[in-house]
Amino acid sequence: MAYKYVDNYREQGARKKLVDELRKKGIEDENVLQAIGKIPRHYFFDETFWKQAYKDIAFPIGEGQTISQPYTVAYQTELLHIKKGDRVLEIGTGSGYQACVLAEVGAKVFTIERQEKLYERTRNLLPRMGYKAHFFLGDGSKGIASHAPYDKIIVTAGAPTVPETLLSQLKIGGTLVIPVGDERSQQMVTILKTGENDYERHVLDTFRFVPLVGERAW
Ligand code: SAM
Fold it and tell me: Most buried pick, 1, 136, 182, 201, via CB within 10 A?
């Protein structure tokens, strides 16, 4: 079934401008920029708010949650250095936009959301847009053990600490990208798993995410 929304020159032009803006802000990975240039972000918005879809802002998606700012999506995806076929676990499906970007750059996507309404909405929307992902409902702070290990893990909500379980579900050579901090601001942390119990950790820029809520989180 074709998706009911349209994607015409107006939206395509706005998308091109957004890509230029992200490039100016420092995003360099052409695969990521191409993905953002291709995915109709307005499909994730109520039609009343389409004008907001190509601004570089986070926006409410219901249930007190947000679709992440395009810059943040691009920044986190770039840090993952995804290779075609990488098994990527996303914690915090939300709107599904980040999952589409991951799929577009070649990932095999496993994504988990704790809010049932968002989970239902997104697992219906993405296939209609032509995107494949494996959808799970539950507490992603514990990861998804049944499908581990993963090449990459991305957390799209702010965590108080790095959940050990996520590190244990990462392959050696794999990367975790997670915002860590308090409720007001978090620093983006990348952790490269270099051995069974060895990690290389980098603390990067500051962001503001909705909280990661769960057993190994807030
Ligand atoms: N990746 C999303 C997107 O592209 O729209 C961003 C969504 S929002 C910034 C973060 C999401 O994480 C929210 O939908 C929230 O319900 C979800 N979340 C928070 N804690 C969670 C947990 N423990 N497990 C799974 N999802 C969680």
Answer: 136
Cis? peptide before 149, omega within 30° of 0: yes
pLDDT, one tens digit per residue, over 9-60 is 999 999 999 999 999 999 999 999 999 999 999 999 988 898 999 999 999 9
CA of 73 to the centre of ligand 1 (A): 13
Structural domains present in the chain: 9-207 (3.40.50.150)
Whole-angstrom Cα distance, residue 5 to residue 43? 7
CB 102 near ligand 1, within 6 Å? no
pTM here is: 0.97
Walk across the sheet containing 108-113 and list its strands.
134-137, 108-113, 87-91, 150-155, 170-181, 186-195, 198-207
ipTM of this complex prediction, to 2 decimal places: 0.99
Beta carbon of 135 within 6 Å of any ligand 1 atom: no
68 catalytic residue (yes or no):
yes
Distance CA 161, CA 181 (A): 7
